[in-house]
Amino acid sequence: MAKSNKKYAFFLGCIAPLRYPGIEKSTRVVFEALGVELVEFEDASCCPAPGVIRAFNKKTWLAAAARNLAIAEKMGLEILTICNGCYGSLYDAAHELNNDKKLLAEVNEILAEIGMEYKGTTNVKHFAEVLYKEVGIEAIKAKITKPLDYKIATFYGCHFLKPSKIKDLDDPENPHMLDDLVEATGAKSVPRKQKTMCCGAGGGVRAGFPETATKFTLTNLENMKVSGAEFIVDVCPFCHLQFDAGQKGTGYAIPVLHLSQLYGLAMGMDAKALGVANHVTPVKL
Amino acid sequence: MASPNTEFMDEIAAYGGGEVKMCFQCGTCTASCPSGKLTSYRTRKLMRQAQLGLKEEAIGGEDLWQCTTCYACQERCPRGVPVVDIVIALRNIAVAEGHMFEAHKKTADALSKYGHAVSINDKVKKDRKDLGLPEIPPTVLANPKAKQDLDKILTITGFDKITG
């Protein structure tokens, strides 16, 4: 039995269900295997995306995020996200609203127009945080039936740990949480330069200035290649997209796995059922 | 000699970036910025433009949009300036005054149309089905009433002015 018997409202976001459904599927089956119940989060929208929608109109961002938070509040559950962007937006929005009654009242005037209210009680968690803190490394190790011997470049992304002042999950400059989670499978996390550098996709840069985003990605890929990594393991579908699709035509070919997919493989699940065949950069196991 | 226009800082404060006044121009932000190594974006310069009220210089160009919101600057700022919050505030002002790139309009349009930042298409519907997932995820995409609620929020908050 896994240590945790917790239940979460499973927030899908956009990139996972609509570009990498294998990530959604892998999360569902892996959490089920670990004894954590993911309850369907019906009627949610985009979180909305922190670097674009928040940058275009902060009022829209906050009210739409509050709508999502209010749905989970009605379910009586904490939110589990599988994307750094969703985590960034929903955590930040909850942090603002749960600590500022005046702002909460302003947002509730908007929500009242659709017959909703947010009381300011929803907590938001990142799935890797839940794996590390709620499930625990030992309970994960107990479920590994097919230990892996891969050399892995761990990719934390930005909005998982930062801003650390309000998140306080791990050292943002020299983190270890994801490395520990990856090594629970038997794989080795290999050190590299500039490990906490951004993938390049966030803040509307992938959409607006794709050549800038690619430059970020190339710097990361070169550092990963030099490190001897055979796989990239991320905790965010948007970083995943940037590395997987963004790698095309660069001359690099390092396969990309979301942590949920790595866990599925290490638990002996069929690779096809985890959606890895749908990746742009071929995943050879 | 021109004097600084402090009204701009008030405007930035109204969008949640009031702490820009705390910046003492040490340059740790620029030195930490991965975008600054690859583009002409200079975080310290943007903070100074904001302080001096150089509004058009701050919001009128491409540099403001070369930030990936990675928080490297904010983590290291010795004054605790929430640099990304200030970038977000400046972008809000830029958009409100009509400075928006076409590619970003498309992302905004996607939120209006689908309730998500990206579209749903036949390929992903098939991939979802093959994986044993419902073709359409159980979000606003699957419930017109929920999508209408979201649409109402977008209209009330003025998001419809930047889409379509």
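qc> The first helix of chain B runs from residue 7 to 14.
qc> done
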